[in-house]
Amino acid sequence: MKLRADQTGDRGLPMPLWLQGALETAQAAVISALVVVAPIVAVWATAGFQNGQFEVLARLAGQSWLLVHGVPLGLSGAGPATASHGGSGVLSLIPLGLTLIPFLLAWRAGRRLARASYTDQLWQALLGSWAVYAAFGVATGFVCRTADVAINLWYAMLVPLIPYGLGMVVGARREAGSWSRLIGVDAVDWISRTSQHSRWAGSYLASAVKAGFVAAVSALTLAAALLAVDLFIHWNLVVSVYEALGAGPVGGAALTIAQLGFLPNLVVFALAWTSGAGFAMGAGSQVGPLATAVGPLPSIPVLAAIPSGPLGYAFVALIVPVLAGVMAGWWFLREGENHFDEWLAIKVHARWFTATLSTLVLAALVGVAAGLLTACLAWIARGSAGLGRLTDIGPDPLWTGLWVAAEVGVGVMIGYAAGPWLEREKTAGSERHGELVH
Q: Any transmembrane segments, and where (predicted)?
């Protein structure tokens, strides 16, 4: 990118990388703000707000932008939102679906900046972009503070950098093709200087962590499918809540967009439900396959799909993390990096003992990796609505991680043990198919 280009064909002076990063970030900040403003303007156009003053709506849009980026908002008891519930609270429940918007914009900006930078110059573009985004966040927090909504300016400056900075790094890595091209450090050369045993141990642990990632993604996918089935079964209840609200076409659309913003949160809630740990929908409540006890819930359509009443066969859902572990165990077998089993087989000649011990160790490592990843997702997805009982919403990260780790570990043992049989069946099927073709 250049600063100017005249008719002679001279491209002019190259734009400094810090300035290009600042411009890319300013563009991303404006686009993400417009995405937040659009539904607010639509509701205002249909007289959906009691107070339709411009400054009130502008502050509401800024507060929504900060919440989308993960900045907690302090709700004062003096405001109308909390006066009916008493006390004050913190709004920290992040709509992860809407957080994907700045993440994807940062991903695009990261790719463009990596394309325009050399390996040892990318830091200039990143520094300029992050400085602008931090300034945008702190300015938004400063302008949008009110007597009813308290905003910590340090949080407003630093927290938005987490999703945005992560998106930029992922995008730059995608464009560069490798970490060595991105940061100038050749990991392959560094690994080649280590001993053979260190390389074997490193590849074994790396494959175990990757298998844990496979288990977590598989569990999330199965939980998402189960959530879709649950919404389909309770669709009549969801529609009844929509009709009872009488929000109109624009209000209903805005409410739907807000619920779609929390869809990734609901998928994590569903994963916690299938693990047996369950999740909370208010202080003192519990929603799980083994027991469900919740109090009065707000009139949000998607909450009507929460399973309630007798759940005689709900315990079958506990098989979801186990199936994810089976997939992870099979994947690890196909990866062919079980160097710990090979080392044990050399040291101890009792194969029944070495095979059992190596499988147990593998199940523990993959289960811990999947459990840690699930615990992080549960911690990100949970939060507080800051009103009344709704100060505890979502799964408990510790218990969810422990349940998932244990169930994935069981599945890994099954998948790794059944993997050779599955591979033989696959090979035999391919051979039969080849014979039919000939």
A: 25-45, 57-78, 90-110, 122-143, 149-172, 213-233, 253-275, 287-306, 312-333, 353-381, 401-422
* Rounded distance between C-alpha atoms, residue 88 and residue 78, angstroms: 8
137 closest CA partner among 115, 114, 163? 163
CA dist list (Å): 121 to 173, 226, 354: 14, 47, 50
pTM of the model as a whole: 0.86
Q: Which pLDDT tens digit goes with each residue over 70-104?
A: 999 998 754 444 444 455 789 999 999 999 999 99
> Of all residues in the chain, what percent are helix, strand and coil, respectively (each to 5)?
70, 5, 25
Residue boundaries of the structural domains of the chain: 17-188, 194-437
No. of H helices and E strands in the chain? 17, 7
Question: Side-chain half-sphere of 391: how many Cα atoms within 13 Å?
Answer: 15
Instruction: Name the one residue in this structure whose structure tokens are 């938004």.
Output: 140
Q: In the 8-state DSSP scheme, what is residue 234?
A: T
- Backbone dihedral region for residue 276 (phi beyond 0: left; psi -120 to 50: alpha; all else: beta): left
187-233 pLDDT, tens digit per residue, is: 555 555 666 667 777 788 889 999 999 999 999 999 999 999 999 99
